[in-house]
Amino acid sequence: MLNKRRKSKKEYVDYEFLSDLKNQPILSSVEENDTILSNMFADCVDFVNKKFQLKNGTQAMATYIDGLTSSDHLEKLISLLMLIEEDKPIQTLQQFISQRIPSTQLKSFDNYGEMLVNMLSGDVCIFLESQKEVIIIDYKFPNLPLQEPQNESGIRGPREAFVENLRLKTSTLRRKIKTPHLKMKNMVIGKHSNTNIVLSYMDNIADKSILKEVIRRIEKIEIDAIFDSGYIEELIMDSNVTPFPLAMVTERPDTTAACLLEGRIAIMVDGSPSVMIVPMTFNMVLNASDDYYEPYMYVAMKRFLRYFFFGFALVTPSLYVAIITFHQDLMPTTLLLSIASSREFIPFPAVLEVLLMEIVFEVLREASIRIPKTIGQTAVSILGALVVGQAAVEAGIVSAPVVIVVSITGISALLVPQFNGAVALRILRFPLIIFASMFGIIGIIFFIMIIIGHMASLRSFGVPYLAPFTPLTWSDLKDTFVRAPWPLMRKRPHMIPNQDEIRESKTLEQIYLHHGGQKNKPSPPSSSSKEDDSS
Amino acid sequence: MIMLMRKICFSLFILLLLTGCWDRNEVNDIAIVAATGFDMEDSEDQKYRVSFQIPLPGELAGRIGQGSGDAKAYYVDSEAGNILIDIDDTIQSRISRKLTFSHRRVILIGEKLAKDGIGVIFDPLARIPQNRMSANIVVVTGKAYSYLNIDPSFESFSGETMRELAQSQNVYTQTLKDAVMSINHPGIEAAIPMMTLKTIEGAGEDKVEIELNGYAQFKEDKLVGTYEGDAAQGLLWLKKNIFPNNTTFAIEDNLYVVVNNQKANTTIHPTFTDEGIDINVKLSVESSVVENTSLRNLFDKHNLELLETKLKTQIEKQINQTIASMQEKGTDTIGVGVILHRKHHLLWNEKYKYNWSEYFSNATFNIELDTKITNIGFISENLSKEEQP
What we know:
The complex is a heterodimer of chains A (535) and B (389). Chain A is of the alpha+beta class and 535 residues long. Chain A is built from 17 helices and twelve strands. Chain A folds into four domains: 136 residues, no CATH class; 115 residues, no CATH class; 153 residues, no CATH class; 30 residues, no CATH class. Chain B is built from 13 helices and 14 strands. The termini of chain B are far apart. Chain B is 34% helix and 31% strand. The mean pLDDT of chain B is 87. By secondary structure, chain B is an alpha/beta fold. In chain B, α10 packs antiparallel against α13 and α11 packs across α12. Chains A and B meet through α11 and α15 of A and α1 and α2 of B.
């Protein structure tokens, strides 16, 4: 009984941060160390523990994070250790290091805290039986083969993107969040393709019930092959009858890491750089990664532009149709006269004109994606500008205001950072135009009410899609229309259930609130000079 | 899911069957009426004449784009009849596009109709919401339709010219709504901007432009006189409608000073006395000198004081002229009755309400003026003056 309790105490080490583990000593038994680490890294598919025996029979174990460490070097080292004949028995660890290990960059630690930090940075740890210290050898990959993000570029912040290889994806994430709490749960789906997917989450932040539901839904998938996270998205989502994305798709490791720390769950698929993040809320469509890196005032402006032009891009073409065909009274007289004069010889009704131009615009957009790189983008842009912009107007097929409306809406749709969010916008624009042409502004209001009602009814793994606007969570509005300065972002969003809501220490917030953001008050010169002297 | 899709498809289908587009109007199917003129005809059986000014978008396009064609950018149509809406319908029957009144921003009243009474036009104008009550109302000398055919030099059509004139800064602007309120409110009478045609000297043959020349003086809905020149300026003082404007006065014989009045504050305070009603007008003006044809040095305190006194006399003269025209016709254009009504509610209802114009004509005006010249400009005296040793 007593024995069992002691053992269980050793197996599970309770901690919140790695710094809590500074006082947790390395045990002398390799077996026990192995148990502790294996429990700590449960559900981490990239954690490797290799046990081996030295030539003299001493138990040893190498642990490292797959993807961060070059295993070639390690294999050579292990073969060396396993094969070299023993002259004298090893007495101390220092002796062992100096006599047996050829690597130059090595350290030794006697506690878990420092050991884990190094291991999670890509070093190899070697445990020896009956030694209370662990040897850390630097076998890091010099640099990971990362691309620049293709679809989500920003001005400030990391310029790296996920690549196709699954192990590189997990190691990129590990580099962002160095803690065993970051889990990488491996799953295999696809009857023929047997694709590896990795479920990544913070096990002390992410809500257990959401996690269980995600795993349950993924396990239910029975399909012959999976080639992209898009398959999984449509197979596990709460609703498929919606133009809105219910899972965020990103190729940025920093975005993914930030989402994990909000208690969301990332799903990575081998062979595709697009990482899927659930549960998604609508405000993520309008958040860009560099919103969190740039000054919050500038971000407030950018967010305002995005929210405003999101609505603008959705409504403008239909509003134009409605006003031109039903509510001429709403326009300023001079504007009406100038629109009337440009529309005077146009053969089509305004609806047809707008629909025509919107379709041409979509065609151009689609063509520019499909066009082979060798032909280049210029062909499409020149043709597009000529056909849409000038020739059509000069030939009197469409009027100039329509071209302006369509191009402004086209450009404002590009303000949306999440590509699949902009897709919803582009799809909904068309029925809205048709409604506007039949019922005028009443039709637009009616259709927008339907859209908002529909959005409010959507759930992504149980999280309301329009959170935090409805249901209204006051404290979460800090990261919607504006992004609060970092000292005030003390808590994680409430809208996503989580286990640990505190993000940063209270002192920062208090200093910010009481001293108007001046964190470092200049200290009197006498004391600082004293410090200099003493150091 | 399939049920849901079916429901959605079905409801969309039903929507298409609804009579949707019944009130749909393409922009090139409407005729935008920019101005309407109301006249009174001479004949007995057809009392009124309504004329419309309709911009032609096709011609406007030419003007905006490649130079100007010779064709006019507007079309004027008119019809006589007894009922105003009937006249509209008759005109509609020969215009291929639907007449749209929501962009009519100026209403012209011919002199004859104004004398007969303009009450008749307000009913159809106010009843239909598409008619803007914020349209400017203007009384013109002669026939209203002749104004619609004037080719203005700056705007594309004369309706716009008249609107701009009626709206400019130091004009007592009257919208339809303002005019109606003054007409039907006891204790105040309407004053409506008045325009006339002016042949321009040196601008080629028969070049005619529209000019704002004062205000039409109304008693109830009938034109009874005009405020022109000094009387018009006096009206602006009394209406507290002071925007930077100029006052010219003689400082000596044939030597004039022009000042620009920048700030002014008027209070009208009626009191009761044994003889009747005293109306105390208090006016303080701050002005700056813009022209001085005399050789006086304005740095000199005495000269400045003289200037202020002369300005005072001039403004007093203007105000007195307005008061004289008002009292002569018995029209309380400045709304003293309204002030009385508000301050002495019971007395007004019992005594003055029904005979107000008589009481007003017999009232005594006490004018208290305070003028101040705060700025004499860059130079102290006329530059042509020889320097004195």
